[in-house]
Specification:
Pfam families: RPS31. By secondary structure, the protein is low in regular secondary structure. The protein is 12% helix and 0% strand. It is built from one helix and no strands. The radius of gyration is 28 Å and the shape is elongated. The model has no long low-confidence stretch (mean pLDDT 77).
């Protein structure tokens, strides 16, 4: 149950092979669907520095 075992994920990585223990479905993009575009984020307006009144 280590690197030599081709039935485990670690063994598949070591042997550079794929199969049921190491599927590739997570890396594939489904055909026909475009990635969703992110909406632009509006930045908050910069705050103006105000002068403090001197204590009398």
């Amino acid at each position: 149950m280590g690197r030599g075992d081709k039935k485990t994920t670690k063994g598949k990585r070591y042997a550079s092979s794929y199969g049921n223990a190491r599927p590739q479905t997570a890396t594939k993009v489904t055909a026909g669907k475009a990635p969703a575009a992110k909406a632009p984020v509006a930045k908050a307006p910069a705050k103006k520095a105000t002068k403090k009144a001197a204590a009398k």
